[in-house]
Structure formats: structure tokens, C-alpha cells
Amino acid sequence: MIVYSKRYGDVDAIWRRTNGKCHLCHEGVGLHTYGCLSLYGGEAGSVDHLVPQYFGGTDHFDNLRIAHQRCNSGRGIRDPDEVRLELAGRLDEPRSAGQEVLRAVAITGGGAAVGGLIALATADPVVDETSRQRARNRVIAGSVAGGLLCLLAALATR
């Protein structure tokens, strides 16, 4: 579904930036609810300005986030971190789907490399040369696989 606004442009791209979650409460925002306040009330999707217009914030894409109407209205001109802490109990913004993939890949690839390093460090050098070689291979494979998966994930999110 593509939602376009004369004022904000590609609302779908703004929505994808936080993986369809309100940047304030971290709960899902249905893209189909955007601008439908009379139908969905406070659950309707809206575009929020990180730097409020009151303080000189613009409609530039980097200053826009998706939010529930109730969260956006409740925030007013307060700092988004203050409202996130109040509503979601955390300060960070929800991650996009691409950021989640990159995070998982980094953890998985890094985990294989770290596991190999631990095995390499703890292998008995005299008795267990086969284990040492396997550990070296895991370090290399984990690093290469992690790097390739990060590259593929980055390309897929473009």
C-alpha cells in the first residue's frame, strides 16, 4: 500500500522507517489508518515532527516519524525521548525491518566468529590440532558469512 501526502510526500517510507511502529509508544500503527481520525480516533496514524515546527522543525523526511494521533497530540512540543520513556519505558526509536535484519546478522555472524575464537583459545595445542583447525575455520567462516550477510541485508533494504 502506498500512501502519499502533499505535505509529507511518501508516508509509506516514513512508516517503514520504524517498521510500522509508533516512534513514541512502540506499538503498531496501521498504514491504512493514516489521516482517518474520524474512523480510528487516537489510533489513527499521523506524521510527527521530531523537532516540532514550533521550534523551527521542517517537513524534511529526516525530521518525520509515524505516530498514533493520540501519542502525537499527547506529546505536543515535548522532547520525544521524554514521551518515549513515559509511554514505552524506553528511549530508543523502533528499528526498521532492515535495521532488525542487520542487527540479527551482526549478532549471528559475530557469534560464530567469537565462538571460534573461544574454541581456538581453549583448544589443547598438543593433543587437539584438529579442534584448533576447526576453530580457525569457524572464525574465518563466521567473519566472512557475517560480512556477506550484512552486505546482502544492506542491499535488500535499499
TrEMBL record:
Entries under InterPro entries matching the protein: HNH, HNH_nuc
Protein name: HNH endonuclease
SMART domains (alphabetical): HNHc
Annotated source species: Nannocystis pusilla
Domain HNH nuclease: 19-73
Pfam families, per database record: HNH
CDD domains: HNHc
Keywords annotated in UniProt: Endonuclease, Hydrolase, Membrane, Nuclease, Transmembrane, Transmembrane helix
Gene Ontology MF annotations: endonuclease activity; nucleic acid binding; zinc ion binding
Transmembrane regions: 139-157
